[in-house]
Design brief:
heterodimer, A: 244 residues, mainly alpha, 2 domains, B: 4 helices, 77% helix
Chain lengths: 244, 101
């Protein structure tokens, strides 16, 4: 009896659903955070500084970038400004996410907003139903915990991790993105078109060196998301004309 | 702790948090025009494409390594919609593959 009710609760509770949804992110963050912690140590940061950066900034790309800039003795305002530029794309993510989450008190949304990353966004955004606040808390808490915890472990464990393991783990986040995308692609031409087009634009921008990685992702996403609406609009109009 | 590093971390945290928080708090009361809503709803699928390529090609010195990993993940994802299966399966398969290379 108890097991049964416990099971029913597990399915119904959005917080637990969020935790489950975040497990793959937690796994995916492991190698990235371990590597971050390890590089932070070689850069000369203390354990406290390393973990604090993960706790307060919580953005993989900009943390790596900051380490690189610290080691090159670049000034802190330049580091902060570059962080801002790299992370502006979160505006796009949270504006999009806002279409999918349930309405709630601004202070609650302001708290889980801290946990919105490319990865938590992707997992949340491909869910079929409207997202509960509890779900967002579960999802973001497990991903955040993994990031902070493994940053510290990476600092302490350093290079003692087996190389083969590290190499294989490097696919984790990409495997997760693919695992999120492919089921949505099945039988949905719009999704296929959106993903392929954005992948092509992003490859073009990055490999040509025309744009930095952050801007490239933003721009290729916006171009594809807009272009498909234009195409849908034109085809609809053409259809209407033919009908008349 | 080095106080310059501390304030740098705080500054980085602030400029990262603001773009995360603003749309969720400000747009709560505002209704966006339909076209803009549609575009924002397209964002998740477009950004997934952009997050995968070309990044996956650069996880190793050799591009085929990431490409093989992406292919394995694609196959796994095609037959299983469980993301954890896809993640763990890809790690194991790619590690095994690199053993033989």
């Amino acid at each position: 009896m108890e097991i049964q009710s416990g099971f029913a609760e597990k399915i119904a509770d959005p917080f637990k659903q969020g935790l489950q949804g975040g497990i793959s992110i937690a796994i995916g963050y492991m190698p990235v955070a371990l590597t971050y912690g390890f590089i932070a140590k070689t850069t000369g940061l203390s354990l406290l500084e390393t973990v604090l950066m993960s706790m307060i900034v919580y953005a993989g790309a900009s943390q790596y970038m900051a380490l690189d800039m610290i080691s090159k003795q670049i000034g802190m305002f330049e580091i902060i400004f570059t962080t801002f530029i790299v992370n502006i794309r979160h505006l796009l993510l949270t504006a999009s996410l806002n279409e999918k989450v349930e309405q709630d008190k601004p202070w609650k949304k302001a708290i889980y907003a801290f946990g919105v990353t490319d990865e938590t966004f992707s997992v949340a955004a491909v869910q079929k139903e409207k997202l509960k606040t509890g779900y967002m808390f579960g999802l973001t808490i497990i991903a955040y915990s993994s990031w902070v915890l493994f940053s510290g472990i990476g600092y302490l464990a350093g290079s003692s991790l087996p190389g083969l393991f590290q190499e294989g783990m490097s696919i984790a986040l990409y495997a997760m993105f693919i695992g999120l995308l492919v089921p949505s692609m099945k039988g949905n031409k719009k999704v296929i078109f959106l993903a392929v087009l954005a992948a092509l634009f992003n490859s073009l921008f990055v490999i040509s060196g025309a744009l930095s990685a952050g801007w490239s992702i933003v721009l290729s996403t916006l171009i594809s998301a807009t272009l498909i609406e234009v195409i849908v609009f034109l085809r609809k109009r053409k259809g209407d004309c033919a009908g008349e | 702790m080095n106080s310059a590093i501390f304030w740098m971390i705080v500054g980085m945290g602030a400029v990262t948090y603001i773009p995360r928080m603003l749309p969720l708090v400000v747009l709560e009361k505002i209704r966006l025009p339909g076209l803009l809503q549609n575009i924002l709803q397209n964002v998740p699928f477009a950004i997934l494409g952009a997050l995968i390529f070309p990044g996956v090609l650069f996880i190793h010195d050799e591009a085929w390594y990431g490409l093989a990993g992406a292919f394995i993940a694609f196959l796994l994802a095609y037959f299983s919609s469980n993301v954890i299966v896809v993640v763990i399966g890809s790690i194991v398969a790619l590690s095994a593959l690199s053993l033989f290379m």
